[in-house]
Design goal:
Chain lengths: ~190, ~300
Amino acid sequence: MGTQIDSLIRAAQRGDQDAFEQLVRAHDQNVLRLAMNLLRSPDDARDVYQEAFLRVYRNLDSFRFDCSFHTWLYRIVTNICLDQLRKRKVRKEESAVVETSGGPVDRMETFEEEAAHANPERTLWNRELKQRIETALQDLTPRERMVFELRHYQGMRLRNIGETLGTTEEAAKNCLFRATQKMRAVLGDCV
Amino acid sequence: MTCDSVAQLIPLYFYGELMPEEEDRLEEHLHGCAGCTREMERQRAMAAALDRRHVEVPPAFLEACRADLAAAIEGGAPRFEKPAKGPWTLFLEALAGTLRGFNRYRTPVGAVALVALGFFAARFTGAGLPASSISPAGEVFSTVRSVQPDSTGHVQIAFDETRRRVVSGATGDRDIQRLLLAAAREDNPAVRVESVDLLRSGADSGEVRDALLNAVARDPNAGVRLKALDGLKPLAGDPQVRKTLAQVLLADDNPAVRMQVVDLLVSHRDDATVGVFQNLVQKEDNSYVRLKCEKALKDMNASIGTF
């Protein structure tokens, strides 16, 4: 897989558009999932997707294989997401709830509902617990939220997370610990 | 190991981030400590609850994002970011680009841009420079219009000059907005994308709204049209905006644009759009757009077909 990705990168660097498209397709689902889970807004996730891959497109020539493409790409993606999260901290968390003719609708719920059809377990979703989880996540700093997202949902190792975020494995560990402690404090006896 | 040190390690243990020997010691402690075992169970329960929050990306949404990206790249995203250039090179390039744009939109845009340039020249140059210090060389680009020698041995030279000015200000600033409006009609699609993106914050002004509508309906670049649609979101209830959107929905050849138009139209309930959706459902070849229209019609209790 690594060799195949390297070949795609080299071809894309020579201007092969098909290779670039394959490179995007090999990674974009995870990128979009990361953005959706972090930002809880389809619109913002769409913006992150576009900006991240446009940056890759513009800067691929400068990729020198000093690290894996995955790490390089995730540096770009996490930077964009962190910027978005920080902006939201300033203007307070933006809700994914939009007013519609049928009343307020959580746009992320429409995605969750789609998944619910495929997995009946999701119908047992406890609304109060969900609300508490959202509160708990909002209490995290952008960096804690990012580390938690990458470890818990994306399954990245803390060493890779540190490399991606430009910090040490130890700092990523501390971030993860703080994040879980904060969430446990908010979730209380809900879990 | 003490209960306190175990509490510190539980999250790392859960995520498999401990060294094997640390793991062994922690497991040994858990085996004999009911309190820490309960803490471990709470960690597992919390993780399970968080797992249920995870959303998967619907394939159609992923496809829509891919279409956006392709449109942005096809629409002129520069291949690779260029190395930093000197101010003179940038000036010449900007000037060349500007003049190309003015040739095309000579009458209206040229007037606006020149007024704006004049404003900024006056505002940022400060007091007029003494005649002797004006130089047609260097950073000033000049066109000599007349040369008139007089009897005293002096010569009077009249020339037009264009200076590159870098101005900065809030996007809501009236004069910045006027420059952005001019830039939104430039030849260079990258300039148009940026300008339209920045104009979004001023969509409540009639001029900006018209520029965004014009971009949505006429810009040849799908990336620009998508940005303009973003800017029109707060105006999705405006009848004029809706009228244009309905026309775009039936005419635009880009599915990502059509999808975004559907989103905008359904964000405000309006029975007048029923006919538009019914019309589109009949001829739409993109399954995701068609499904969106069908869902919108269903939400409006309207039939899918026109019968």
